[in-house]
User: Fold this.
Amino acid sequence: MATLNQLKRTSKRSYRRVGRGQGSKRGKTSGRGGKGQTARAGNKRRPELRDIIKKLPKRRGYGKNRARTVSGATPAPVAVSINRLNQLFDAGTEISLKALQERGIVSARGGAKVKIVAGSEKAKKFTIKNIGISASARAAVEQAGGQIH
Assistant:
C-alpha cells in the first residue's frame, strides 16, 4: 500500500503570476492597491490591538479573581433572627435544621445553610444543634440558659 510520502503529484500546482502581461488582471499594482507601506514586499506590521491588550493590567478586579475564591454554586446561608425563633418555638425546644424545615423557615430541598443571628429581643432557653450561629446570638442564647451543640 502506498504511503503519503510515496504519492506523486499528477498536475501542476496552481498559482497566479502577478505583475505580468498587458491583458491580465494582476498587472500594475498587482492587487496591492496604491502606494505606501502596505504596497511593499515584506509588509508585516504588528497588530495594534495586541499592543493595546498587552498594556492592560492583568488579574485585577472582581471578574477575574472571583472564581478562585467564590463558588457561585454554593447557596448563601439563610439568616434567621432570634426574634423569629421566639415567635415559632417555645422555650426549652431543640432547634435543628429539620425543625426549621418543618416550620417552613428553610426549604426542605436544596441543602441550604442556616445561620442564627441576634435580634432586638432576648432569646428564650433553646437547645441549638448543628446550626451556625453568630457570636452575639450565641451570647444571647447562653445568657437565657440555652445550649449550643
Residues 78-148 form a domain with the Ribosomal Protein L15; Chain: K; domain 2 fold (CATH 3.100.10.10). The first strand starts at residue 78 and ends at 81. The mean pLDDT is 85.
